[in-house]
Amino acid sequence: MGLQKFDDDSTLEEILYSVCEKRPDVGLTHSGVPLSLKAFNSFDLQTLGDTSKLSERQWEQLDEIGLVPGVETVIKTILYGGYFPEYSTEVAKNGEILDFKKRLERNLSTDPYYQPCDLGEPLPSSPHACSVSMPCWEHIVGYEEGDPKVWEALALGYPRFVVHPYNAKLFRACERELAKYGESCFAFPSKKVARRACDYIRHKNGDQTPLRIEQYRNTGIYAVIFPSGARDAVLKFWQHFGFVLSSRWSEDVLKQDDQQGEEEEEEQQGELFNSSSISQTPILFPFVEPCDVRNHTLPIDFDVDAASTKSTTATTAEKQAPPPLSCAQEAKHAICQRLADAAGAHDATDVYLYPSGMAAISSGLLAAQQSFPDCKSIQLGFPYLDVYKIQTVWGPGAHYISDLSPDWLQQVEELLKDQQISSVVLEYPGNPLLQVPDLKALSGLLKQHEVPLLVDDTIGSSANYNLLEHVDVVMTSLTKWFSGTGDVMAGSMVLNSNSLHYDRFKAFTETEYEDMLYHKDAIALEINSRSYIPRMERVNENTKPLVDFMRGHPKIEKVWYPDSIQDPAIIKRGHGGLFSFVLKNREDSMEFYKNLRVCKGPSLGTNFTIACPYTLLAHYDELEWAEGLGIPRDLVRVSTGLEDADDLIKRFGDALNTV
Fold this sequence. Notes:
The chain is of the alpha/beta class. Strands 10-16-15-14-13-11-12 form a seven-stranded mixed sheet, sandwiched between helices. A five-stranded mixed sheet has the order 17-18-21-20-19.
């Protein structure tokens, strides 16, 4: 399908209509204004034709909406789930401003950031990326040890561990306006979260730690002002509890500050500056009239690589086309309904959205602790570090059953008989060894003792596993598989309305829950997640042959993948896209990793394959402890994307052939 020669009077809408197959309106917006554009259905990006045929005025039209001028880029933006972002030029790598318009052209599935020179590139190529390229083993070590050469190369990082550049800039703005000498600021998305941060800081540094909370310029963002020496405690709260400030929110506030500064500078030309002249008008963003999107999801034949992927398990409702989104609240309704449908919840009002997955998880843990004060929890299986920290550092502590050996259920039962337990907490499957306990047996035991079961299903996803029927609360990082694009932070907590503990958890959410998902994040997430089910089906299809290849390769010692789960009451579509492995010759791990032609860095669940040496990245300061629990320090974890399975097998085979 080549491009025709357009007349100078052709509009952007007409251009896009001409290059897209017919499909109902996807309701893209730019600066709050709907763009009536048809998206693709099925075509080959390589046959789009010569974009140089567009006139100069038409290039300008494309540039005005923040995209590199080229129809292929417009299609890719639709293809990879985004609404049209206003790309910023304030994220830097090695002091150089990154050109995101140029980077948008790069397809990370076919042209990944994997070479040493790619250190620090955002993954994906967005100023709001949630991962960063670390292509070599030594980059991971340098990151963990604070090597300036590595850190200076990082444009950004995973937002809970590396403060996003926009957030850092906003923190400095807060310090200039609110802090005194020797004080620093961190900003949070609500006053309640800021108070909780203060409680944590005093818990770590002493009750006499001088702290203040002030709203920044009537934005709804609250700064915690603290002695600069208490920064480590604040960072730990930011990391462990997950109530991070959206980079999109910070970006908008900074833009508003810049605009306001220009207006004030003009006013000062004839009068003295008066600090009271700072505008106290809330920062508002334009929305158009709302519409009902709650009963609509993406057509099931959606496919991100433009080859037709047919779904065989989607319902009739999933075939309905989405009407345009017109406001963030409707986007949130759509997200909650989508999550309720995937998890099997009876009502979307039992779905709660958070600014990150850890915010959802920490809320679930706090709800259990509030229901059973001073009672320890049970952490079942190798823990995600921050989940364990919340239970042990902030909470009353946890019993740890790391090894899911044949007697694990007996160990749980003995603890239940001996004392009151606040909750049992686990990942399903576990990370990084993908272990899975007998969920039905565990659920039955806990019901006898009236102890809630809290499960993080981020690794496996609600698209693949039917967990809510057997657990009391399901918590998820929506940043991962649900979004797929990897450019928006969010989390969810879903309550089981049939649970013995439903009233307790519902009461907690009624009093403690705040909607802190920023409206631009909600719109991006809603659009990204329209392809959730077909994407997961494609990921499942890609991962199994790759796992089989790795299991059969003579240079691989062991592969971990949760395909032992065969219970039809649990499994719905497949076993997910995450697997881990170790090489027989561990000394070859670094060379293999360097030569592996996929994106490499933290996080998982992206549309492009991403790998990392997980133990080094997650447990660098406790490697011996992790190894003592069966987690090899040389373990490589892979999150499979939407590439062709044969292509991925060749890439992994090529890397193995170099060692």
